[in-house]
Amino acid sequence: MTLSPQEIDALLLPLAPSLAREADTILDLRELLMSKGHPGKCVRCFFRLFNAAGVESMPKLTPLRDFMERYLEIAVRADGSELETIPVRLRQGEDLEDFCLRSMKQVRLDRTYQAQRVNLAFRYKAAA
Fold this sequence. Notes:
49% of the residues lie in helices and 16% in strands. By secondary structure, it is of the alpha+beta class. It folds into 2 domains: 5-72, no CATH class; 73-124, no CATH class. Helix 1 packs antiparallel against helix 2, helix 2 (23-34) runs antiparallel to helix 3 and helix 3 packs antiparallel against helix 4 (58-71). The chain is globular and about 50 Å long.
């Protein structure tokens, strides 16, 4: 994932007028995207914006949500090896906790891994 500053600004600037109270979060997300910072922090910022947005702001978040789903994934690892990756799917009406619980349940209930401990972590998708 390599986005230009102009592409990042095109994602975030439309949010500023209606989410002015979340200016720090928007700036934090901009910095994370510019520096390819920790993807989990990007998701946390997204949910802060998502939860602060009113009904009129939701359409403005769609390009950012599409971006997150296109460039982020969840790596599932156990015993030092990668088992699989899960796509990031951000649902309306969820918060970060709901999203994480849904992802953990998906791995725990829909899979039959032999490992005692399975770790999930956000990461950027590898370049195609």
